[in-house]
């Protein structure tokens, strides 16, 4: 890719780079269902939606897109046949069996967390800022338009919406359903984050990338401006080259390499014959990957949190810590090698 944002996060665990692939697979399944609605394509669509929904909850917007697309079909009786919808639902549900088992084993943890978020005084109501989402959308659009200006970003979003509506009216068949569905989902997704008023990460919007590129390509081809499209392609590629070069040549202190190195150093400095546990004093946005790496390197933990010493990975590092770049490792003397 020549999108510098994706290159930047490619080295950071666990950025959802597979979500655009999921969107493309959904498009392919919907195209085949539109062309010839065989049962196998409903199975493929259900499995794809379920798999990527397990990766990131915002894939629910792609599910909404698929639902709106199917509802617009002119062959409604054939495409929305109860048997086919049941197969679709069953294929989707199968992908959630591990999550359901986890849910039951941990006393409905996910349900309780969701209810707490929407409860008075919970995450939804605390410190809401309806405009905070623009920062994230700005980061998302910058690799395409390369200008960080709030009013300009809003104008670009409105333009994308209007272009989707225009294409939805101008095109026929599959593409009319496609663009109409996208226009609705784009509006709903932006309004949803506006209502929540919390700063989401860029992962919440990454599913929009394939749609944005599709709209740009199709609008130029529809109005027979392929030369302009080619020029635009090279402009986007050129403006992304400098940031890409930066991320390919500079060391990322919070990338996967740094985290992997920190966990290796932690393992080498712990006495595995003694009982201990590991905790993380790290900001939420940088806390991904550590627990996975601790499990990967088979660092044993006792699970007795109130009894045994606690080793800690910290960001920023404290003066007395073992430093691995900007990451600090606090290891109590009683469990240190």
What does this structure look like?
- With 337 residues, the protein is mainly alpha-helical.
- It has 15 helices and 4 strands.
- It has helices at 4-10, 19-35, 39-55, 60-71, 76-79, 82-94, 97-105, 109-118, 133-145, 150-170, 173-196, 209-222, 226-249, 256-269, 290-296; strands spanning 277-281, 310-314, 322-324, 327-330.
- The chain has a 4-stranded mixed β-sheet with strand order 1-2-4-3, with helices on one face.
- α15 (290-296) links the parallel β1 (277-281) and β2.
- The longest helix is centred in the middle third of the chain and has 24 residues, at 173-196.
- It is globular.
- The model is unreliable at 122-126 (pLDDT under 50).
Radius of gyration, Cα only, in angstroms?
A: 24 Å
Oligomer: single chain
**Strands of the largest sheet, in order across it?**
1-2-4-3
Q: How many β-strands, per DSSP?
A: 4
Helix content: 55-70%
Low-confidence stretches: 122-126
N/C terminus separation: 45 Å
What is the average of the pLDDT values? 82
- Topology as a string of helices (H) and strands (E): HHHHHHHHHHHHHHEHEEE
Q: What is the overall number of helices?
A: 15
Approximately what portion of the residues adopt beta-strand conformation? 5-15%
Shape: globular
Q: What is the structural class?
A: mainly alpha
Sheet of most strands: 4 strands, mixed
Task: Name some characteristics of this structure.
mainly alpha, four-stranded mixed β-sheet, 337 residues, globular
Task: Produce a short descriptive summary.
The chain is mostly helical and 337 residues long. 61% of the residues lie in helices and 5% in strands.
